[in-house]
Amino acid sequence: MAMKLAPPASSRPARAGSSGEVVRLPFVGENTASLVAGLRAGDPAMKALFFTRYAPAVERLVTHLIGPDRELADILQEVFVQALSSVGSLRDPTALKPWLLRIATHIARRTLRNRTRRGWLRFFVDAEEEARFEPATEELDAEGRETVRAVYTVLGRMPADERIAFALRYIDGMELTEVAEACAVSLATAKRRIRRADERFLGIAGRHPALEKWLREGARWQDR
Amino acid sequence: MARPVGPLERLGARVASALDEDAAARAHALETARRGFLEHEPSRPSASVWFSVPRFRWLLAAAGALVAVAALVLTRHRAAIAFEVNNTAGVARTWLAAPQGAALDLTFSEGTRVRLEATARARVTDIDEHGASLTLESGRLHAEVVHQPDSAWKVMAGPFTVRVTGTMFDVNWDATSQQLAVAVERGSVSVRDASTGLEQVVRASEALRASGYEHRLVVAPSSESPAEPASTEHAAAMDASDGQPADPAAVEARDPVTPPTAKNSDSSPEKGSSAGDEWRALAKRGALREAFTAADAAGFTQTCAAASSSELLLLGDGARLSGNSARAEEALLTLRRRFPNDARRAAAAFALGKVAFDQRRAYEQAAAWFSTCLREQPGGPLARETAGRLIEALRRADDSAGARRAARDYLEKYPEGPHADLARSVLR
């Protein structure tokens, strides 16, 4: 073994000088440009860092868009695979995160549209779809689970574009400009989609008991 | 101007909050995706503009997905890796201890070799067709990992995880002092501190030194081992504050243990006794659970009364890892009472917050401890993580005003921190 490694609990003072000077390298999180450069160069360590740094935000967004989902891992993986394969097209490395979230939104939308198409071929409720809302642990509160189930059931009956806009705006809590950016549409289009989504959601949710208490305040929505 | 909050916003926030409760399943999905992504061998990244050309998006995306699926199908048919320990079949999740003066050689069927140097303790905690996870309890190991496109190897030591694809490197872990050293001879690894989220790449001919207490990762050329990460600046900062907790103070006052106050935190009158020797020896080896069991058997209260501040932190960790929150609190509260000027008081407050949050689910109490830690060391090494945990605790405690205050404070200081997204979601 060629490598020499001092014991970890060394009490030696910090050295200075050209050969032994301690180098404080910037953390990758502080330098997105170097991360993008590493990804473009195919550096496997940067690939790992890319996922570590951004996966929680992507996971959160995708979960908000599609709800609890058994295919979440596959969707996340696809987002990162696609991002990696197209990172060369990223013009502004500092815009890595919004660019990645746009890809995530795009893939979530495609997933929803594909499921809608497949849904036409089914005559019965898919047991697996139902199971998506079952708690992973006993700690989940029943009321919250029921609300989640109801909201995503209603969203499931809406067109993918409106569903995406609704989820970005209300569940993920994005500003209108952020919704427009994530959907890669103009601000006016984003506003129009959200308005339509509001109307459609209200129309369908009115028939869902679990959403009743939220709908009681519906009259105020028109005043926004 | 703040965005108006209507019923749809409230409904959406309720949904987001309920989804957050399913953290375990989501974390599992993240780990599965991480592995799949790292296994995926990309086509060479290029200045492709496919994503900006609508007509080609579908075709290329479909091709990418096909490649991903094909890669997954191909790789999943590979047989699981087996390993031997000194030419004897190895068993996963069994502790391996290299004796004094001799090494243990772990040979994996795909060619990877790991050597546990004398007195090192480790175990193979997980193994499949892509690689293995090794937990290094204490001591030093040398690894030569064979590079495969889908390799997934990691070495875990305390809060640190060393992720590897194909490389040659050394890891040295001292559980007692919470010091980690990594030296890379070939390839590269990434080292992550789970308690802070900090991650650092270490490349060939570089070495990294990290401290589990101080949460710093320092890299230097491996020809010159990295200097000690602890700094006098840090020590001064830790000594400077001596705030008193609000609610936690009442807890401290109720604690029945009344050991003498010690000025020298490292003084330890029982160090020569056999009972003290046993748990200390175990703690030194990093066997914190076993150390706690030994200390408990020898009389936990007396042990705490005789322990130094650093030992009390270890006893608290051992009890916490053993799921004994009462004993963990006893050790940590003893530290805070006996060592009123010790720098480790804030670390104890942070640990008490974790016990309250993770084990007792007493979120208000957890928030009080996290606040105490921040008050005592506002610029300390744990400050960022503590500030984030404070938001979580206040949110769980249904203190929305407090959570918003904490979120604003967090974003002011750490706009790019690991809890920044959570903070922003709280403020929406």
Which secondary structure elements does this structure contain, and how are they paired or packed?
The complex is a heterodimer of chains A (224) and B (428).
Chain A: H1 32-40, H2 44-66, H3 72-85, H4 96-119, H5 127-131, H6 142-155, H7 160-171, H8 176-183, H9 187-205, H10 212-215, H11 218-221
Helix pairs in contact in A: 1-2, 2-3, 2-4, 2-7, 3-4, 7-8, 7-9, 8-9
Chain B: H1 7-20, H2 23-39, H3 54-76, E1 83-85, E2 88-89, E3 95-97, E4 104-108, E5 113-116, E6 121-127, E7 132-145, E8 153-157, E9 160-164, E10 167-174, E11 179-186, E12 188-193, E13 199-203, E14 206-211, E15 216-221, H4 232-240, H5 247-254, H6 274-284, H7 288-297, H8 300-306, H9 309-321, H10 325-338, H11 344-359, H12 363-376, H13 383-396, H14 400-413, H15 420-427
Parallel strand pairs in B: 7-8
Antiparallel strand pairs in B: 1-2, 1-4, 3-6, 4-5, 5-7, 6-7, 7-10, 8-9, 9-12, 10-11, 11-14, 12-13, 14-15
Helix pairs in contact in B: 6-7, 7-9, 8-10, 9-10, 9-11, 10-11, 11-12, 12-13, 13-14, 13-15, 14-15
